[in-house]
Fold these 4 entries.
Entry 1:
Amino acid sequence: RLILDNKVRSRKDLDGVVSMPVVGELPWASKSRKRHKKNRKDTDVPIFYERGSKSLMAESLRILCTNIDFMGTDNMSRPQVVTVSSFNVAAGKTSTVLNVAACMADNKRKVLLLDLDLRKRSLSRRLGVGHKTRGISNYLYDQELRLEDILHRDILHGVDIIPAGMVPPNPVELLRRQRLDDLMAELRTKYDYIIIDSVPVDIVADPMVIDRLVDVTLFLIRVGNVDRRMLE
């Protein structure tokens, strides 16, 4: 089994292969497996970060959020707009986005979740604002809508969200519109952190289009989910 196993199993598999820094390691969150799959609702919110907790998960998330703050450049004291991507589906992007947001909000920061996965809308559904809810796709299409029309406040403790909205037939075309750039410029003045949930790379063009808006991209590698031969 060891000879035939070609999956990433630990941080050692990244050493000497990946040139980007490893900003954090998150343990497996066993609570997400307590429910049997057929009994698990799509709206279950996988929040494992607990305020004041000293658990391994909470401390790992604090280390990750601290390292994100230190990823600033000469022109940027700290990243303000962060997105999470991966090679493939089921890597844990939505769970990571939610828990990083909860951790950042615990530090008395103003945090906004922005669901730009206009096709699957996992983040919006998990937070109960996915079905027939006006969101970013409606805002980009309808020039009459304002920010307050699509903003849901305190969806989590100290965290606001702009949901994905209705599923459009042309997600990439909507994401290219200047109206999204103008919205991001406005949001930067209102929030300390804007965390974007996006789609996996190399499946559709959405992540490359969104990249113009982002300060830092967190690339998620889930143990047992990624082939080591794809790392380069």
Entry 2:
Amino acid sequence: MYKRQLLHTWTLSVEEQFYVAFPLLLLGVSKLKRRVLTPVLVAVLVVSFVSAVYLTESNPILSFYATHTRAWELMAGALVAIHQQKLVGWIGVLAGWIGGRRSLELLGLLGLTSILACVFAFSAVTATPSYSTTIPVVGTLLIILLGTRETVVGRLLSTGPMVSIGKLSYSLYIFHQPVNSYLYYTSFGERYADTWQLTVVSILVTVALSLFSYRFIERP
């Protein structure tokens, strides 16, 4: 029971390892020439992705939770952060060749659609991390690059409700798994297991705790 309640915190450990290792990597690369930074990050991305595909076939549990099989996702974000302006420029030129502004809109919508499709299409049998994981990763990168107020997706994500959800996202993530576990193991969960009633109660309790956490813990 208790393992299930805190199972989701493995992602935080992977992030913390990234926050420690990545600056050290940048520091080491800075001793060399700056132009080698991108090749180094690309090399880490490729090695990590190949490891993820290979290990997911031989040891899927280790591959799912390990850091070296998830590093490529973080490297993808790092590369976009470093080369964001250049990438946006390239996408703009490409869109101009294809269909102008409409192409930019379609690429932004493609990014959002990719993420939503994974929410509904991925299941417990989906190989992760592997080739399938590139779909939400690329979708996220497209939104980062094209999610400005100049695009439909950007304006959608900038609306009040979406911004509010974004502010609560960390707390929502932290609380959702413990709430689900506790409710599942109570008499309420025994009676309404795998029903919409349990889902609704879980969402309401999670949101309430997240609002409290954001107001009295995160903001201070």
Entry 3:
Amino acid sequence: IRYTQSNVHDFAWFADKTFKVLKGQVDLANSKRRVTSWVMFTPRNEIFWKDAIEYVNDATYYYSLWNGDYPYNNVTAVDGTISAGGGMEYPNITVIGNASSAHELEVVIVHEVGHNWFYGQLGTNERVHGWMDEGMNTLNEIRYVQTKYPDNTALSDMVLGGKFHFNDLNHHDLADLSYRTIAGMGEDQPIETHSVEFSQINYGVIMYQKTGLVFFYLKDYLGEDLFDECMKM
């Protein structure tokens, strides 16, 4: 079997004889070109993965709307427990680690599919300028959740079931509070920091969350139309 794909700088291949496979399609926001979507998952994780085609399709649609159309003909998410952290991205395909809920799975899939734009198309150097990949992708992750689930209470749901009365705190607040905590402790680092120079906690909080917040605020300042015009590839 021979697979070909132009304009990719990395690849991955996954196989499991127990995989269940779902196939779908999504029409891109700008060109209306149709992309084939796939999810592959093991039977034990079917409870969370049964609606994963929706997550892949919505990620591809919204990222195309905001950043320019997805350039490839297929987009795939694979259930895999050997992934690095929550997931690991490659052009056209991403492998996703274990999730504790369907919503958590959706957020991870959306984030990892989103890497097809910055890491994938632009080929940004994540070791030197990590914010250009993870941070910009976190912006879109926050925007996705706030767009699709405007009434979400993601942070409140995480804080011991609301026992501390952190009510109505959403996905955006999760990033905001994470950064404010680090800044309040005097442990903040510049966004433009080499990956190896980040402290362990700041690799996630600064590179991902702080960058995402900065550009989310820029979007609010410029307005969505101008911001989207600036961000399209």
Entry 4:
Amino acid sequence: KENSLKEIKSLLKDSTNEKIKETLPAGSPLEVIELDKYLQIGWNDKVQTEASGAQNIIIAYSFARSVLEEADIEFPLIVDHPVANVDQNNRRTLGSKLGLMMHQFIGFLIDTERPGFLEGVQESGDVRYISLFSNIEGNKPFIDEIERLPSKEFTKSENGYISYNKDFFVSNVMGDH
């Protein structure tokens, strides 16, 4: 049992590091140096206590991908606020790599997370944009805007709206509503 656990941890560590190298710029000094209760990051066996926001995301996605691939499971990686702590330039890089990292990625974004990230995601391949929100008074500006679209470009249910219109998605700004 203990030997199997050690072997699995070693396999996942190595696989995660391969995926990190695929994603980060060449020569980036970051790797998983130990996998126990936590992923211990560092470089050349020297422990690093923190990574940048983008590095943390890449490590997490690389580890999740390693676990899923080892289990031979293909399902989408779904992340709420996938780039909240990442600067705009790194968002673009991360967005462009997601198509290579996962067979399918679903990210729940707010308008302030889109700059940089959407441009990167568009570079990576097939992208679909979905806007959805509740049919409540506080969303009246969105409701007014979506109802100006051709009826075939959105669906209204008893409690909400959904649209696959890219322009509507990109132009949506939360502001005070």
